């Protein structure tokens, strides 16, 4: 696949996982792509926890179901009805999970480029995640990012130290297909904005 095709084909996957295994060499390439991401001060503040244990994944999935209920409880009317139709995770249907964490102490104290913007470390982790997502797409795999969780729950579940943040729980694996349209768009939750709506000339708001 050419690069722009990978970008266009990437989807957040929930319902389309087959549960078939991911070959070790493929997983190594996908993780290698994540680890090749740019990072502030070359701090490489990420770690990747590969979770295969069904017991661990079931415990996470139950926690996510509870957080889904928390979010749903704040919705009314059309939003509540629309959200009711949306699946927000494929934790058990996918082949495995990769939890990506952020450790602000890596490369510290003198992280070059982070002195004024503390979040630059977090941005770096998100770039690793995007590399992983695109590499998985190029390999014909699906990825689903799950963020319906409390960080402390995931810390406890996986033995992550208190100073390290679990940034993403990613479900990974072969899929029946990647949808042409994002799930949230298909269900009428939100649509992708036209590029022109987010483009500014010279100054914010400039046409
Ligand atoms: C930070 C972040 C957190 C997300 N959390 C969830 C989630 O908990 N559950 C879910 O179903 N999708 C989640 N998504 C996926 C988005 O819903 C999805 O990217 C968006 O609807 C656009 O669809 P696409 O990725 O298929 O283009 C998350 C995406 C990001 C970037």
UniProtKB/TrEMBL annotation:
Database matches in Gene3D superfamilies: NADH Oxidase (3.40.109.10)
UniProt feature coiled coil, ranges: none
Keywords, in A-Z order: Flavoprotein, FMN, Oxidoreductase
All residue ranges annotated as the Nitroreductase domain in the record: 7-173
UniProt cross-references to InterPro entries, sorted A to Z: BluB, Nitroreductase, Nitroreductase-like, Nitroreductase/BluB
Pfam families xrefs: Nitroreductase
Superkingdom of source: Bacteria
Any GO molecular function: oxidoreductase activity
Protein name as catalogued: 5,6-dimethylbenzimidazole synthase
Organism from which the protein derives: Kibdelosporangium phytohabitans
């Amino acid at each position: 696949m050419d690069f722009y095709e990978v970008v266009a084909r990437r989807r957040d996957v929930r319902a389309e996982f087959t549960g078939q295994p991911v070959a070790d060499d493929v997983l190594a390439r996908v993780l290698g792509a994540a680890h090749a991401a740019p990072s502030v001060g070359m701090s490489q503040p990420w770690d990747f926890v590969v979770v295969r244990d069904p017991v661990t994944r079931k415990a996470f999935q139950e926690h996510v179901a509870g957080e889904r209920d928390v979010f749903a409880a704040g919705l009314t009317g059309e939003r509540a009805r629309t959200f009711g139709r949306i699946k927000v995770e494929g934790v058990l249907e996918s082949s495995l999970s990769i939890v990506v964490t952020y450790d602000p102490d890596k490369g510290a104290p003198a992280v070059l480029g982070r002195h004024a913007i503390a979040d630059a470390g977090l941005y770096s982790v998100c770039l690793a995640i995007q590399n992983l997502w695109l590499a998985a797409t190029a390999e014909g795999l699906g990825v689903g990012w799950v963020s319906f969780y409390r960080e402390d729950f995931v810390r406890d579940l996986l033995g992550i130290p208190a100073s390290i943040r679990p940034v993403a729980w990613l479900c990974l694996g072969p899929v029946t297909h990647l949808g042409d349209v994002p799930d949230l768009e298909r269900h009428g939750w939100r649509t992708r904005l036209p590029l022109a709506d987010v483009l500014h000339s010279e100054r914010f708001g400039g046409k």
